[in-house]
């Protein structure tokens, strides 16, 4: 069995870049068709590859949902086990996951008003500047 460290040290994507791009852009139905054509070992490694990249986290969960727990643990150790558990949780909506945050409000008033800067020279400063 690989350790989690071994799984994350190998940073090569197990599928072609074109296929990864298609998966990233696919809708949920199209993604399941694309994933079905990938071998189970490569699928588990791909789920782990995507999981460590925040912008591919949702894709990792979708791919991991089609993997066996055994494959994910074999290739990812504890991370694979965690990924398996996360992929089996019910989907959270975006609104539900951010409901604990306070709403952002923007001010409609000017931030500050400043008096214009008037730059006046003293006669002394002008005479010093001319003699220098």
Protein architecture, described:
The chain has 132 residues and is an all-alpha fold. The chain has a domain at 4-90. Helix content is 58%, strand content 0%. Helix 2 (17-25) runs antiparallel to helix 3 (28-36), helix 4 (40-51) crosses helix 6 and helix 5 (57-64) packs across helix 6 (69-88). The radius of gyration is 28 Å and the shape is elongated. The relative contact order is 0.12. The model has no long low-confidence stretch (mean pLDDT 80).
Radius of gyration: 28 Å
Quantity of strands, as a count: 0
Name the poorly predicted regions.
Answer: none
Multimeric state:
single chain
What is the percentage of strand-forming residues? under 5%
Termini separation comes to: 81 Å
Structural class: mainly alpha
The best one-word shape is elongated
Portion in helices: 55-70%
What sequence of helices (H) and strands (E) makes up the elements?
Answer: HHHHHHHH
Number of continuous helical runs:
8
Average per-residue pLDDT, rounded, comes to 80
- Describe the sheet with the most strands: none
């Amino acid at each position: 069995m690989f350790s989690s460290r071994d799984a994350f040290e190998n940073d090569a994507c197990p599928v072609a870049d074109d296929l990864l791009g298609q998966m990233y852009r696919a809708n949920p139905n199209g993604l399941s068709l694309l994933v079905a054509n990938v071998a189970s070992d490569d699928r588990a490694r791909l789920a782990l590859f995507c999981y460590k990249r925040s912008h591919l986290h949702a894709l990792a969960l979708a791919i991991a949902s089609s993997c066996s727990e055994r494959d994910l643990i074999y290739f990812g150790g504890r991370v694979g086990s965690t990924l398996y558990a996360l992929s089996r949780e019910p989907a959270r909506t975006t609104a539900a996951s951010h409901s604990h945050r306070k709403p952002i409000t923007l001010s409609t008033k000017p931030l500050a008003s400043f008096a214009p800067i008037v730059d006046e020279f003293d006669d002394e400063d002008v005479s010093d500047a001319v003699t220098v």
